[in-house]
Specification:
Blueprint lengths: L2 H10 L6 H22 L4 H12 L3 H11 L2 H8 L2 H26 L2 H8 L2 H25 L5 H4 L5 H31 L3 H38 L8
Length: 239
């Protein structure tokens, strides 16, 4: 009876999940109880529906009050910023966590040595994988830190990082193939032994190892984000 009303409220109510789901269930129960009471008093189906909506007073002012009551503090701070500043601030906050994580990995793992071994293709791998990880960091910040579950925010839940993960892997394979070709050509041209060929091949494989690790990380984070949204009972997309 009230599906259209509840759908409209869900799309306009700026309350994070799962609180939004709880509010909708409570509103549905209250509306049905009020409508049943009016029908018992002799009202028609339409009169009971109109009366229940009128008695609960679900106007824009009431919905705005609910939104203000449940808005997380970080989102409140962001909403106080001017619109031209808000979006860059969110990207900066997301990028900061990515920079800190990258610094920790580089200092703990011999990443620079692997990058040097892989050659020029490694920089393409870094750019593509970095773009995917930045997108995921931005989504994680919006959904789980500032808890922005608006329709615009949830519309970011796309498979773009997975496409970038595939592009990262393909770039690694291409870089490895180019390295193998260069190594074999150099060995044959200069009549060198198998030791040089094996060494050059091992360095070429660094592209696949590096790209594969980053692609796996991107897929893993994408799965974690999806699991987090399901745990919050988020309906995507909300439109």
């Amino acid at each position: 009876m009230f599906d259209d009303v509840l759908h409209r409220i869900e799309t306009t109510l700026d309350v994070p999940y799962p609180q939004r789901s709880h509010i909708l269930r409570e509103l549905e129960a209250d509306l049905c109880a009020c409508a049943n009471h009016l029908r018992e008093e002799g009202a028609t189906e339409q009169e009971a529906r109109d009366g229940a909506l009128r008695d609960l007073g679900l106007d824009e002012e009431a919905l705005a009050s609910l939104s203000a009551l449940h808005t997380p503090i970080i989102r409140r701070l962001l909403l106080r910023l001017p619109q031209p500043v808000r979006e860059p601030a969110e990207w900066l906050a997301a990028g900061s966590s990515l920079i800190v994580g990258s610094y920790f990995i580089i200092t703990e793992v011999p990443m620079l040595e692997i990058i040097r071994e892989g050659g020029f293709a490694m920089y393409f791998i870094l750019v593509i994988a970095g773009a995917a990880l930045l997108l995921q960091a931005r989504r994680a910040f919006g959904w789980f830190v500032s808890r922005d579950h608006s329709a615009a925010s949830l519309a970011r839940n796309t498979a773009t990082p997975l496409y970038l993960a595939a592009a990262t892997m393909l770039c690694g394979i291409t870089g490895a193939a180019a390295g193998f070709r260069k190594t074999l050509y150099y060995v044959v041209e200069n009549k060198m032994g198998s030791d040089i060929a094996m060494l050059g091949s091992a360095e070429s494989l660094a592209n696949i190892v590096f790209a594969g690790g980053l692609a796996f990380l991107i897929v893993l984070i994408q799965a974690a984000l999806a699991a987090g949204l399901r745990a919050l009972q988020v309906k995507t997309p909300v439109s």
